[in-house]
Amino acid sequence: MKNILKILIMISFFRCTNSETAKKECNREYADLIVSEGQDKLFMVSTDKQFRFDSPCAFVNEKGDTVIPYGKYHIWDSVNFYTYAIVKSPDGIVGINRKGEIMFDAYLWGDAQLEDISEGLFRIKRNGKIGYANEDGEIIIPCQFECAEQFKNRQAKVTLECDYKNNEIDQIEMKSDNWFYIDKKGNKITTPQQKL
After folding, report:
1. Which of 75, 105, 135 is the C-terminal boundary of a domain?
2. Cα angle at 112 between 149 and 118, to 5 degrees?
3. Taking Cα atoms as reference points, which of 152, 160, 159, 156 lies closest to residue 183?
4. Which of 4, 95, 130, 135 has CB atoms 3.0–4.6 Å from 148's, for a disulfide?
């Protein structure tokens, strides 16, 4: 009974459910990346001189003009940026563009940690589905997968159907009978370098 309860909790955490928060996430409108030639770096400012996690922040340009106002987001990962920043919003950890619009939900693992960029790409989420963005925050592979692993040897293991289960040491595992590999453009690989 205890394991069933854990599984149900984890599934509700990772999937869209009937709760108001999940409905909001599963139906969220996302913005695009904004890139223009010669754009200046945006700098995070905060009333918290130590820049602690979850402190309110704003972003200003090199002239000191406020581009993204205080109170909309809180400090999470990014301090300065050209194209996108990872911040905490009322709806979770998100990637924002230079206008402060949400582009994607951050893919978190473990103790709410952002994953490292692997082979130039990192996992993101939109409406509960997983895709991949590059180092500039540009979405390269659309969010369409239920479960997806990081890229390794120029390929990633993904699936459109997946369940999250706890293993014997209480770690979450992604389970599917329909895994396949994709390349860095999102094309299905018929002869993967790794075994499923």
Report:
1. 105
2. 35
3. 156
4. 130
SS3 assignment, position 135: coil
Whether residue 111 sits in one domain with residue 24:
yes
Least confident of 11-25, 26-40, 117-131, 171-185: 11-25
Q: How far apart are CA 124 and CA 191, in angstroms?
A: 26
Amino acid at 158: V
pTM of the entire structure? 0.79
Residue-range definition of the domain harbouring residue 10: 1-28+107-196
- pLDDT digit string (tens) for 134-144? 999 999 999 99
